[in-house]
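The material for today's practical consists of a large collection of protein records. There is nothing in a record beyond a sequence line and a structure line. Backbone structure tokens are a discrete shorthand for how the chain folds in space. Nothing more is needed to start thinking about how sequence determines fold. As an example, a complete record with its sequence and its structure tokens follows.
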Amino acid sequence: MKKIFLTILIMTFSLNVISQQKDVSVEKSIYGIQTGILGVWIHSEIKLNSKIALRTEVGLDSGIFGGSYYSHTNFILFPTLTVEPRFYYNLNKRNKKSKTIFRNSGNFLTLKMNYTPDIFVISNLKNISIAPSISIIPKWAIKRTFGKHFTFETGAGLGYRKYFLKNTSKNSKEAVLDLHVRVGYTF
């Protein structure tokens, strides 16, 4: 009788662990707002499968510049559009260690695809514009949720950017380092 009871107990525990592992998945949809050192963004993350979410983002990137040509420090704000599939690779590991995966808290790999149009610019200088560009940047990052709504995100990647310059037949290309640190609120 003890052997039967022990066998049933072990099978029940094993099935519970297996069922918990199968339920580990990114969330169906997340909407929120984030801010960082140089910008503010509104985002949406939609589940594609249990480990991959598609993030879309609209925001304002910013810059600070100055130097001997300018009499003082200047700022610029310009719109950006971003699409990035995110592969959350450690959700099972976090779940096994009883760490939260709420609101897709985990480590992820992503391919950030960003478009910066020359629609409008907000600056303390008049008659300033930016060169439209696209960039593709493979990145590694982490995302953590605190409480029910607050998030922290940081990441790094190295990729490629192409500028579409006006009044020239040349288009500038460059390697680009993307580092980000953001805090946010999810709805």
Summary: Residues 2-186 form a domain with the Porin fold (CATH 2.40.160).
